[in-house]
Fold these 2 entries.
Entry 1:
Amino acid sequence: MARIRAHDYDDRRRRILEIAAALIAEHGFDGASMSMIAARASLSKPGLYHYYDSKEALLFDILHSHLTALRATIAAVPGDLAPEARLRALIQALLAAYRDADDRHKAQINDLPRLPREQQQAIKAIERDIIAPFREVIAALNPRLEPHQLTPVTMSLFGILNWQYTWFQASGRMSLEDYGELVARLFLDGLKSLP
Amino acid sequence: MARIRAHDYDDRRRRILEIAAALIAEHGFDGASMSMIAARASLSKPGLYHYYDSKEALLFDILHSHLTALRATIAAVPGDLAPEARLRALIQALLAAYRDADDRHKAQINDLPRLPREQQQAIKAIERDIIAPFREVIAALNPRLEPHQLTPVTMSLFGILNWQYTWFQASGRMSLEDYGELVARLFLDGLKSLP
DNA sequence: CCTACCGATCGGTAGG
DNA sequence: CCTACCGATCGGTAGG
């Protein structure tokens, strides 16, 4: 028989996830203890374990929910745009989804290897789903690119986008949308002149 | 009185540093224990502490020696080249220095926040020395760029270069030099057409 | 330079 | 008897 759960169980779980992501981003997966996470969530440690069976399950949920949301955002970008407009829209969608997700993004980059192999592969499969639309529109934008160049070119764009969290300041003189437009121009004009 | 040290003290220390960088890259700073590092280096734990006074000192030496070497490589790039040739040379120099330095690079990206504030700032100062020549040549290549655009454009290039370790396979069909040339073309042609 | 340890804290779970 | 926790402590291991 199914357990009865508090009516706000899902909300509480989500709140714990966000608190844990912030602490893991700050201290690393091993440095952020379940005690710290529990304390920050105003829970006892057994109370925390009521929501997540293990520290590993918590990390998996952080990464899985983050990447699932990114994938949904990318999948929602209209497919019938012209290639150039579509790449702009994909770049803006990804940057917008990264907004306020620095903690999860950092956990993804730093702590994915802390998960067991099968869970890592589940996460990496979602990463590939996110990359695929970019790869396809890049191939459409420059048909001269040879297959073995497509991954390096696509990953160059992801380098730009995934590195942004290390230096971008929302308080600076450039908005994230402006940066998306800058990246789109930089990359599109460079791409056109390849190889 | 100064202790007498083994004639190969510095070599042994360097070997420990490389072993430690590999283990920290694999397991994270907190996940790589001093016992693991000692065992891998065929040392007892107190033996390891003969070479490094603390785990923190070991991490600092990994990052400091890595970034000092990068800075020297960048500083050795001729200053009298034309801007376009100079940017190509800077890109190739940085990628060449990253070769076989994935462990140190990963430690830099993931574990810098594990150091105390002052040591972090010492490392970040070297990072700025590495970035500065890129910034200057980018400004020379496109004088239309406004000051507040210079950091985003420069960091876009560093995103490309610093992300490379996550996907690049030396065994693939593209060499690191070829990738450097691809990045130079992509970035230079994009840069010219900004803003 | 070793074995043998320490104070503390880890992730996880017992009884109530 | 249930769920939803608590205070206390488990076996192991961390850095030193």
Entry 2:
Amino acid sequence: MNLVRQKKDHPLAGVKEIARRANVSRGTVDRVIHNRPGVSEETKRHINAIIEELDYQPNVLARRLALASRGTVRLGVLLPSVSEETEYWKAPLEGIDKAETEIKPYGVELKHYFFDQNVQATFARQVAQIMVDQPDGVLITPTFEEESIQLLGFCREKQIPAVLMNSDIPGQQRLCYIGPELFDSGYLAAQLTDYCLKPGQKVMVVNIAREIENNVAILGKVEGFLAYFREKRSEEPLVHFHTTDTDYVSVSAGLSALLAREKEIGIIFVTNSRVVLVAEWLEKTGRKDIVLIGYDFLSSNIDYLKKGYIDFLICEKPQEQGYRGVMTLFRHLVMSVPAIEDYLIPIDIVTSANYRFYRN
Amino acid sequence: MNLVRQKKDHPLAGVKEIARRANVSRGTVDRVIHNRPGVSEETKRHINAIIEELDYQPNVLARRLALASRGTVRLGVLLPSVSEETEYWKAPLEGIDKAETEIKPYGVELKHYFFDQNVQATFARQVAQIMVDQPDGVLITPTFEEESIQLLGFCREKQIPAVLMNSDIPGQQRLCYIGPELFDSGYLAAQLTDYCLKPGQKVMVVNIAREIENNVAILGKVEGFLAYFREKRSEEPLVHFHTTDTDYVSVSAGLSALLAREKEIGIIFVTNSRVVLVAEWLEKTGRKDIVLIGYDFLSSNIDYLKKGYIDFLICEKPQEQGYRGVMTLFRHLVMSVPAIEDYLIPIDIVTSANYRFYRN
DNA sequence: CTGAAAGCGCTTACAG
DNA sequence: CTGAAAGCGCTTACAG
């Protein structure tokens, strides 16, 4: 196939053309473009005028390619390890890996610091390790607040840009946050709940996590969820169920006891991906009448979505969060592109009718 | 800030390294990589072995940059013109423009062929013009089936790759389709409807379009919507309302008449972005009790979402559709990257609680 | 069948 | 303060 119609006759103006017109070298033009010192005011003005006139747009690809010759940039990534119990974290990791492959050719090295979500000490240990390694930039999942703040302080002192992912810590200085607005995520869940609520029915709010009181993500969602009902309804039709035992046996026992008492429950909202445990219980007890709302695009959750035990999954593109987190650091450090301070991830609603088209 | 820790010591293996190991020139390696003729079987095998061994990953940026020296590639884009009435098409156009800016530096020229959605003749005229211009690739919104098939036939004959966008035409040969699965889109709307339906209520299905019987998009969604109720309910609680008058006066008159008769209607489903007209009517008649479901992330629709007259908007990332359509052609023609035959766009649910985070 | 050279657009030492 | 040269990793004529 002959794609070549003609040689490019109107190449977009580049550094070369600007240099030609300004009667200077390309190096000088480059200095002006990047506001680097060592150019006389006069030449600078002249060159800037030409840049304006030509509406010069730098070729991003060429820039990146040129930068490939620079030295190594080391990035650190702090995130929960993937276990059977916390399959969720596979997705951000995939996004991180994807970004790594993409930017490896440009001299970026990435080191993972994994911790066990259930053991605060493992988090602390990895934070300490990061302080020893002193990478050039870090991507942090701030599961435990205290140590996270400590790490952020260290970063500020050492001028290491830090990106927060998945949940934010208010009032802390960081390059940016990438993740959902947790309050709105819970608020949305409440809105869906309200649409599905039939007259006289009650709603059960379920937290299943080893750590609840310190879990920023869960607390934020619950807050949003409750705010909705406070706003829209005079009496809150809510029943609460918390458990720090995350195994099926404990959860099912708790559910059985509660639902025996509370007969009017028509909807169950689970504040994280452990919704699968409730779905399992619904299946075993044969209750298809209850609407179940939960979190995250995990294969086990999708299975129950298909079977009809889970009705809505709220998903926040975990893979994209990881990908974008790494890329933000890369662009900031290597390309000097400013970061968006709060990059709020879409809050998506997934049902059995649209899950096949969802993209993490 | 000192980013440069060390000069790259482990550069990823590239063409140069492969050439060195194979004792050939970089040109020969390039020929093997791209399966171009003119290399002896033996060297080919040898080079391929080394490629395997090093797990060589080509540097996409460098490749694109090198290709910038090639001649011009001309792309044609056939899509509805943006008018006040059809603001929807602004979004795909934005995506197309974004792609154009991105690939312009690589010798791509893009020509728009706009037509009036309401006038089939304008579509036919632009199809004829494309046949005269014979671009190297086309992106088509196949609003009118007959002329679209004609154009696709022409493309096949002339070996011009064609990408379909927004709606598909079954059984036609094309490079790929980029858009939603329309049936599932309607099915999802029905599912939401069903969740919101209170006992005894009926649902009104509304089509507002100059052309309904020939409108592939509307027909597909309606089919999915009806299929759901046929599947899940013994009696269909549906009332239909079609109008080819798309002004507010006609629509409101029709609605008023119908709702005076049908008192049990609790939910209205509008099959396209004209849902705004129904929202306006609900506002003017002060009916906040009816749940309204419609399509597309338009500013006027979002206004009514905020005010509470529209409850759900189904959105299918129109901007991404345009962007991806152009990029698919680009990658196919310039980078020889194979296209995905059916790129099905996510079907998103937008409410007043998550619209602020939505990304087209 | 194969290689040497030039080029894509930008950046970076280095020399002056 | 400024320029000439080399380089990023890949591709492309052209010459043999």
